[in-house]
Structure formats: C-alpha cells, structure tokens
Amino acid sequence: MRIGEKQRLKVVKKRDFGIYLAGSEGDRDSVLLPAKEVPEGTGLGDEMEVFVYRDSKDRPIATTRTPRLLLGQAGALSVKEMGRIGAFLDWGLEKDLFLPYKEMTKRVKAGDEILVRVYLDKSSRLCASMRGLYEVLSTASPYRVGDEVTGRIYEFGHDFGTFVAVDDRYSAMIPRYEDVSGLAIGQQISARVTNVKEDGKLDITIRQKAYLQMDEDAKALLELLDSYAGVLPFTEKASPEVILRETGLSKNAFKRAVGRLYRERLVEIHDGKIRKAEK
Question: 267: closest CA among 225, 239, 217, 214?
C-alpha cells in the first residue's frame, strides 16, 4: 500500500460503511474506501484507481479524489489555518496537509499561497515542506531563451543565486550578481529566460534587456555619485566583486552605464576615479 500515490486496487471486502481495497485477493494489507465515495454498482473483484493517505487517526484510508499534490511533487497551496505546531494547507482532501514550523523557510499566515513539496515524515504521514524544493522541481519546461516568464521566489542561495519556481513548477535561478534586495520568499516576479542549461534548469533575469536597462542603470549611477559627493573611488577596471558590492550592478552593466554617462558628458574619468561633470 503506497501512501501518497495514486494506485489501482481491487475490491476484496464490502461493508455497510465502505469497501476494502487491496493489491490482490488474499492480500492482508487492505485499505478502506468510505461508503460515500464508493461508485454505485461496485462489486467484489472490481478494480479502481484511488489515492491513499492517512486520516485524522493516522489510519490508512483511500479516496477517489486526487489531491493537488502527490508524494514527491511540488506546487503552490493555500494556508487554510494556523495551529500550535504548524500550518494546515488546502490540498483538495478532507484532511488538510500539515506544514510543521520546522519545515518553513518563513513564517506564514492564513490566506498565504506558498510553494511546498510533499514528503513522508518518520511516522509515514504525509506532510508539506518549504525546504528541498530545488530537488523536486521539474526541469522539463517549455521555455526558451528570451521568453518572458512568471516565477515565485523560494530560496536565497547567496553563493549561487536566487532560486525561483517558474509557473510554480520549473526550476530556475537568478544569478547572484543581480540585485534581489527588494525581493522576499514567496514573492511572485516577472523575469526573462537568459539560458536553458543542459539539465533543463533555467537561468533567468529580472533586469530588462541591456538597451532598456541602461537608462535606469545610468540614472542609478548618477544618484550613487551624489551619495559619494560626486566622486566614485573606482572605475570599470575595478573587480566585479567591488562593483557589485558598491553599485549593485554586474561589471558589464556598470561599464554600459558609465559609457552612457561619459558619452553624454555627465561624468569624467581620470586618476582611477569617476567624477560627476560640472555643469
């Protein structure tokens, strides 16, 4: 009996309160399908597809309904209510899916829509987790380089980048050099695909195309110059790490912005510094 999966089972026993299903006749491992879900005309030996989980008393039970997520799958679910030791999520069955506090990457509240995966805990109960999503998200997306996509932030992996679930199901990442300081776990974003890796994972950007982004970067750089009293103590020859730390821009974006300001005679470059030009 596979908890958390849909499976075809055979009717081995009928009772007033429902029918018992098993893999085959004589199988000692059977599960109850309550009478209210038994299709009319069902008889001994009939086969049917059901989902098996555990009821409120931790007993295996079958249902003909399909939850929004099966074991090992990831997706977005709504928080129905909060409890003393965790949250309860609406996944389409009578018994809500439990999300323990220790499996949260941020505190949630009733009404939130959050990205989770379904796993079995030590007692073989189905639970939700906001952790480990990277391993279960699909890599078979239909998207190509240049496509505009919508995704949900689910983890900040500062050494690698920001992890995003495109369409709440496909694995994607924003590179670590992009400014994500204004983003939060669970936030939905619009982005553009910049690369499809060999394993199917997506690289995405929240920045506009270079020729559109340049005006915004140039404007931001002018504001930064004002905060530095009109002088930046480095140029585009500085290391990418310094440029990113001080400006929030990648080295290429910084060079484009400086070039734009220089061509418009808004800055001067000499002695290893960038100065705001005097009017």
Answer: 225
DSSP string, 116-146: EEEEE-TTS-EEEESS-GGGTSB------TT
Main-chain phi, psi angles of 240, to 5 degrees: -55, -35
Length of the chain: 279
Q: Mean pLDDT for each consecutive 10-residue tract of the chain (279 residues)?
A: 90 91 79 92 90 88 94 94 95 94 93 94 92 93 94 88 95 89 89 94 83 74 87 89 87 87 86 84
φ, ψ for residue 129, nearest 5 deg: -140, 140
Spatial distance between the Cα atoms of 48 and 278, rounded to a whole number of angstroms = 80
- What is the model's pLDDT at position 279? 61
CB distance 191 to 206 below 8 Å: yes
Are the beta carbons of 60 and 9 closer than 8 angstroms?
no
* Pairwise CA distance, residues 266 & 277, whole Å: 5
Whole-structure pTM value: 0.70
The pLDDT value given to residue 118: 97
Which structure tokens are listed for 150? 């919508």
Cα separation, 103 vs 91, in Å, equals: 17
Give the H/E segment covering residue 241: helix 240-247
Taking residue 267's Cβ as centre, other Cβ atoms within 10 Å add up to 24
- State how far the Cα of 193 lies from the Cα of 206, in Å rounded to an integer: 9
Q: What is residue 246's predicted lDDT score, i.e. its pLDDT?
A: 87
- Put the strands of the sheet holding 273-276 in their side by side order: 231-232, 273-276, 267-270
Per the listing, tokens 């952790």 go with 131
How far does CA 165 lie from the centroid of its chain? 4
The alpha carbon of residue 156 and the mean position of all alpha carbons in its chain are separated, in whole angstroms, by 11
Strand partners of residue 151? 166, 189
The pLDDT value given to residue 63: 94
